[in-house]
Specification:
single chain; about 260 residues; five-stranded mixed barrel; 11 strands
C-alpha cells in the first residue's frame, strides 16, 4: 500500500505540460496506481498510432523522467527512442491528446452526450486510468495543460459512472445490469491471469449456481488469482456487469475488485 494525499504525474514537452494529479483520501494500492499509469501510457500510444502517423513512425511513447520524494510525483515525457530527446514538433500532439482524454472521460461519466472518437481500446484504457479514484470516495483526478487550454477534473462518483458505462459499452449491452460491492467466490478458476476460458464463480446475491466469469482486464483478475495465497479460501468484493439469458445470469463481467472476505465458520 502507498500512503499519499496527492498523486501527481505529468507529461512535459518543452513549453507543453500535461499534469495529471490524483488527490486521494485513502492509501493507494500499488497495483491500482501502476494500472492507472499503464492505462494512460497505453492510451497515449493507441492515440498516436491511430491519429498521428508521423509520431507513430517515430515510436513516440511516454517515459518516466523523474519521481520526486514526498507524495507520489512522477514526471512523464513523450520521447522517440529513435531521437532520444523531446521534440518541439510533438507539442501539439500532447495538447490534442489532453483534449482527447477529456472528451473520452466526459462521455463515459455522462457529461458529454454525443460519443467522441473513442473505440473499445480507448474505453478500456480510460476505465483503467480512473480506477484509483473510483475506489476512493471523495478523491479526484485533475488534468490540465500549462496554458490551461485543457483543464478538468473527475471525482470518485464520476469515475464510478465512467467505469460502469465503459463496462456496459464493452459488453455490447447498454442495458446490462451493473451490480456493485457483491461477493464473488470461485467455483473453478485458471491460474493464468491471461486466460479467457474456464473461469466460473458464484455470486449468491444474484444466482445460486456457478456462472462464467470474464474480467475487464488482466489486472482485475490478478487481484483474485494472481496472488500467492489460495483464491478458493476467500470471497471477493467486486463490481460486475451481469449478462442474462431468459432472465437468468449467464455471464459475470468483473470490472473492479475492491477487497476480500473470509468464509463464515
Amino acid at each position: 500500500m502507498i500512503k499519499a494525499h496527492s498523486v501527481r504525474y505529468s507529461v512535459e514537452m518543452d513549453e507543453a505540460h500535461l499534469t495529471l494529479e490524483i488527490r486521494n483520501t485513502a492509501p493507494v494500492e500499488l497495483m491500482d496506481l501502476t494500472s492507472s499509469f499503464m492505462g494512460m501510457a497505453s492510451e497515449f500510444r493507441h492515440y498516436v498510432d491511430s491519429r498521428k502517423p508521423e509520431a507513430s513512425a517515430a515510436e513516440l511513447k511516454l517515459y518516466v523522467q523523474e519521481i520526486k520524494s514526498g507524495s507520489i510525483i512522477a514526471t512523464l515525457v513523450a520521447l522517440s527512442p529513435q531521437i532520444i530527446q523531446t521534440a518541439p514538433t510533438y507539442v501539439p500532439i500532447v495538447l490534442d491528446f489532453a483534449k482527447h482524454v477529456k472528451n473520452g472521460l466526459d462521455f463515459l461519466s455522462g457529461k458529454l452526450k454525443e460519443r467522441p472518437e473513442i473505440d473499445n481500446s480507448s474505453i478500456r484504457n480510460l476505465s483503467k486510468f480512473v480506477n484509483p479514484v473510483a475506489k476512493d470516495g471523495g478523491s479526484q483526478i485533475i488534468i490540465g495543460t500549462i496554458d490551461n487550454s485543457v483543464y478538468f477534473n473527475i471525482g470518485s462518483e464520476e469515475a464510478i459512472e465512467a467505469q460502469e458505462r465503459a463496462a456496459r459499452l464493452l459488453s455490447g449491452d447498454k442495458a446490462a445490469a451493473v451490480k456493485q460491492n457483491v461477493v464473488l467466490y470461485w467455483w473453478q478458476a485458471r491460474a493464468d491471469v491471461k486466460s479467457k476460458t474456464g473461469d466460473k464463480a458464484v455470486i449468491e446475491s444474484i444466482a445460486p449456481y456457478p456462472v462464467k466469469v470474464v474480467c475487464i482486464d488482466n489486472s482485475v483478475k490478478a487481484k483474485m488469482v494472481g496472488e500467492d495465497e489460495n483464491p478458493f479460501r476467500h470471497g471477493y468484493i467486486v463490481d460486475v456487469v451481469v449478462e442474462t439469458i431468459n432472465g437468468k445470469a449467464a455471464l459475470y463481467n468483473v470490472v473492479n475488485v475492491s477487497g476480500k472476505v473470509d468464509f463464515p465458520e
